[in-house]
Amino acid sequence: MINEPVLLIVIPLFAGFLIPIIYLISKKAIKYIPIIAVFYNLFVLIRLIQINSTSLSYFTTGGYKVPFGINLIFNSQIGIILFAINLLALIALIFFLKKEFHLVNSFAYTLGFIIAISAVNGMVLTGDLFNLFVFMELAAIAGYIIATHKRGYYPSFLYVIISTFGSLLFLLGTITIYNVSGTLNMASVSENLVDVSPHFIVVLSVMFIVALSSESELLPLNAWVPKVYEKTSITGSIFFGSVLSTAALFAVIKVLVLVFKGGYEYLFNSLTIIGLATLLIGEFVAFKQRNVRKIVAYSSIAQAGLIISAVSVSLKNGTITDSIFNAAMFQLLNNIFAKGLILLGVGLLGYYSFEKLKGIAGKKKFASILITIGVLSIIGMPPFAGFWSKFFLIKSLIANKMIIFVAIFLASAIFEVYYYLRFIQNMYYEEFDSKIKINQISAVSYFLMISLSFMIIYIGFNPSSVMKTISDIFTGGII
Amino acid sequence: MTISYLIITAGIMSAIIYLVSKFNWKAGTILQTLTFLIIGYFLYHNGDYSSSQLAIFNNISLNFTYSYFNEIFLYLGISVMIIVSLFSIDGIKNYQYKPVYNFLTTLIFMSILGVFGAADFITLFIFWELMTWVSFFLISMGKKYSKKAALLFLFMSMIAAYLMITGIFLIDNAVGGITFSNLINNYGSISYSLKFKILMLFVLAGLIKGGVYPLHIWMRTSYSESPDSFTSILSGILMKFGFYLIYLIGLFFPVAFILKNNPSKLISELPSSTFFAYLAGISIIIGTIAAILQNDAKKLIAFSSVSHAGYILLAFTYGTSMAFAGGVTHILVHALTALGMFLSIGAVYFRTGTTKIDELGGLIKNMPLTFTTYLVSIISLAGIPPLFGFVSKWMIYQSLIINGSYFLAFAAFFGSIGSFMYVFRPLAGVFLGQRPKKFENVKEVPFFMKAGMLIVTILTVLFGVLPGLVLKPIISMQQSIGIEPIKASLYRLFSGLTTLDMLVVFTVFGAGFILALIIFLLFAKPTRVKQHEQYTAGEIVPELQTQPSIYHYAKNYYKPFSRIFDKFPSMEKLYKKGAEYLSSSFGVIEEFFYEESINGYIWLISITFLVIIAIRWF
């Protein structure tokens, strides 16, 4: 029983049900439940990664065989990505319990968080379209709670509206697919979609593109991203920046690979264009910002655009172009750590606007250096992790003669380098305003940051083997 | 010791130097100098050409080589770093972040070893990028406007880097590997149009880094605002990375120089080398004029670098064996002279706190060695015999004359004559003339700064008298790549037209100097006048006390000349306007896509629907 990936979903969910009961007994004790659950999750994941091979395998639930019951898809590469996601969730959680537990409605927030972890794991694992919808809804509902912060309710409200719109479209698309294909299993859907008329596919694709854009931070449904990132708590920002966005992107990629595999050139062309537009617009707008959280938000939008467009380019020919796809997944993995590190570090410093961060490195040297590592990784400077993912991406794109793609990507990357390093420069070389109160950073927080930067440097010095462990996620064949 | 070990050593030492500098910055800087010296010694001691690999990455190993084509650049890099580090032992006293400065300059040293020691393009690129972000932090440490300067530097460097990486992967695709040897072996299999693309990408990257007009815009502010001792590294080595790239790609892609010796199909089809030669000519002229108009000594040298970048590019694109050797020599010349000029101006700044020419004056009495360094460097830079600069310019001129190109010859001579004007301005304004009262008690710089400057001076004179010391490795490099080497002995150079004997030149000039000195000592009757005396003629001028600099004789030094260029369009202003326009359009984008209200948002969604469906229909 311990070797079932479904545990990753069930355990947090169970913990979520446990919380109200424990809350009646002791209000403080609910702190420990999510930690235990996520630790257990990580433990299960390590076991699963060891046992499972690199080829995709189905895990049925409830004894129903594959096309009928709900099933989970797992292999060791998905395990690695899940591990990174859960690790970041753990970091956010530890930080939350240590620092922000007393600041917010602790009961709702803890509950929301643990449910969100369950939903996120579900989004990554599930092999069923309707099931994916359920998990996305669950994540979104938990996300509303996490996004809400006393600094402002408007972003959370905007998030509710936009994400509901996306969900509705997704549901509509799922129903339509069920109508024509008679199944909801992602892999079987693609087999049954072969005879459907191309016009129908167009409508379906448009539905899915727009529906998935809200969670995966793509245009046109990403207006909630900068506002939520800006106003939510530190825990919330790490959750949205590293955990939810990664899982949502992965879910989108999974839908693209499993449902729409085969020659839907039109879908992938439009997604490439939308992704590149998201990339460019995200970087351009981030260029204007003078608030670190907004910068990370827009850059996260841009990265999502980059990854989705790279993935759709790699899927265009009906088969997966491995090199581009793997590089995109590597980029996804690297962004988890780098974004988490920056958001955590800036959150610990306690200020987000350039004005207030001026010269803060003089007072908080070590924290600033760790943030710098995150930034240097995200902008792709050697010897950090981000350099290699950018490197492999450019390499594979040029190898497949996508020169225009590369040109757009690199042009936007120049802006990214510029605004991120402007932020770092502002932290190091401006005069410190002595009126600003310096926040104390505890040893635990430092430990969390160090572990993240250690990951970045480890990948930076060992890129090939790390990339190998996550490559060929969907091409290893299905057992 | 192979280069890979030296690089690891430099990496480890950077951390140790940082820790030592934390406790005592002076000890840290001395340790840095010793590290550089020892690493240089090991490279020299090993002697033989060798290749090595750094395989801490599983599949990606970094290849290094110490070979005929990069030997001279490695020594150049190491010696410049040693000199600057020596200078820094006293020179960084006033800096705010000394330990970090030492740490980062050691990383720069590492990246120099990596770039010049690379045996494949990826290694080169990795260390190039390392250099970019480290330099960004170093430039930011400088003066008041250094942050903007650093950002501009970063922006331009990233453009160069991304052009380069695109070129690298094009090569990788075409020949199935990115090592230099692989490229040489499979050069023939690349199609012509691809060759052209790759060449353009690399040369553009090189031109940005090398500061050739109109891509020079980062140089003025980066040079004037960065910390003084780092400016020397920046202009001495880092700017040369660009030309090293052009040199490399020229070696493996025989576009310009090798073409003329071994005519191949490429020559007739490729207009690039002529185009770049003319660009180089324009760069020389514009750099010279702009330099003449500067009032800040460091900005002046920055624009002189634009002009000299033009000389190097001209030599590289021009084609003959002599011009090629002249180009490589000019890289060394410019590294050495820019080093001397920036160190001496840095020394002036160290004592006086300004580099504005019209605020200084008469410092020759206070800082004789600094003056000597500056004087020797500018003589070399202007290409006046008998110093090192004359050798490289002679070589470039020889090839120009032999091949006969009027515009380029005009540009080259214009640059030479113009350089007399601009190098003379700081000489007269900073070191000669009357000394402002507040600088009467200025002392000569401390020992280690003097030592650094002295070494530069000695090297400039030594290489001027015995150019064979530098030309020997160039000749052996030319032999190795299979082009006809230039003919030169220890102090003689032979072109097709004439022979240059630097020893004779030196003797003649030395004798002339001694004669002039004797005449000066015997007959000159100098009268000492106080500053401003010639202006006031006994009258009391009220502004003299409040704003003495407007009566400084170096104010508007070349006014008649600068009046000619008043209406001259400025490339930098054009870029600035473009940047402002871009920035404001980003604001519009933000308002459109990320506005506050939900209402406008509905439109966006509808438009997306329409667009996606429209793509299908068209």
Structural overview:
The complex is a heterodimer of chains A (479) and B (618). Chain A has 19 helices and 2 strands. Chain A has 479 residues and is mainly α. Chain A has a domain of 215 residues. Chain A starts with 6 loop residues before the first helix and ends in a 9-residue tail after the last helix. In chain B, a hairpin with a 3-residue loop joins strand 3 and strand 4. Chain B is globular. At the A-B interface, helix 6, helix 8, helix 11, helix 16 and helix 17 of A face helix 5, helix 6, helix 25 and helix 26 of B. Chain A: This is NADH:quinone oxidoreductase/Mrp antiporter transmembrane domain-containing protein. Chain A: It is found in: Cell membrane; Membrane. Chain A: Belongs to the CPA3 antiporters (TC 2.A.63) subunit D family. Chain A: It is a multi-pass membrane protein.
Structural class of chain A: mainly alpha
Runs of chain A in which pLDDT lies below 50 for 5 or more consecutive residues are none
Estimate percent helicity of chain B. Answer: over 70%
Taking all residues together, what is the mean pLDDT of chain B?
81
Q: Which descriptor suits the 3D outline of chain A?
A: globular
End-to-end distance of chain B, in Å? 64 Å
What is the assembly state of the chains in this entry?
heterodimer
Low-confidence spans of chain B: pLDDT under 50, at least 5 residues? Answer: 255-272
Mean pLDDT of chain A: 85
How many DSSP helices of chain B? 26
Radius of gyration of chain B: 26 Å
Number of helices of chain A: 19
Helix-strand makeup class of chain B: mainly alpha
What is the N-to-C order of secondary-structure elements of chain A (H for helix, E for strand)?
A: HHEEHHHHHHHHHHHHHHHHH
Q: Summarize the biggest pleated sheet of chain B.
A: 3 strands, antiparallel
Strand adjacency order, main sheet of chain B: 3-4-5
Portion in strands of chain A? under 5%
Shape annotation of chain B: globular
What strand order characterises the main sheet of chain A?
1-2
Query: First CA to last CA of chain A: what distance?
Result: 19 Å
